Amino acid sequence: MPEEKQYFYIIPAELLEKGDITKALLYGIIYSFSKSKGYCWPSNKCLATKLHRKSTKRISNYLTELKNEKWINVRYKNRIYRKIYPLINLSSSAPQSNSSAPQSKPIALKSTKECLKKQDQCPEKQHSSINSSIKSSINKETINILKLWNKQEIMNCVAMTEKLSKLITVKIKDYSLELIKDAIENYSEIYHSKFYFNHPWSLLTFLKQGNALPSFFTEGGEKWKSYTNWYNSPEQVKERGEG
Fold it and tell me: Is the domain defined by 8-94+103-108 classed in CATH 1.10.3470.10?
């Protein structure tokens, strides 16, 4: 009989040791679903089924708790489509992967500074390879941000410059990779809509200007909040023929 293929859930020890095993397992399921794209879109019913639960009410509560505790980020589009992004601080809470488990690419590197501090505990011969790994990850992340920006067709950026790369790196450390992606996609949705705000920013200005990037976060972004209020107003619902 052929041996059945095994797979594993990755759960941060810090979350597991808080005592709510079901919530920790839910995080592990979300992380597993997100391996290919960095996010997932399961319904609460799907998550409840994976946890062998009949009710979805507790799933909603768990998701809210995970979001409030900064383990996940949840982004809605038109308040219908949902994307769930697992967030992990790999420098402190993430466990080492079992060699027989599927290897997954880190979803978000929360703080390069924290990783560098962690290296002080390692032998000197490991420092260069760890530094190289971090730099490589950040370079890939900055390129991914550039590609995502250009897909929005607002004001395309022809090439990555040293100045832009450094700025993106700073913003990733200040916020996170997924929050920046979230803001870019929200800005694009607003820009291409009939909403009053349609100012075309360059990527450099979007990241640098104080009233830009944070204003488009799904959670707490003022421009995004204004847009969703407008989008869900009775007049707009009627205009879209949804009323």
Answer: no
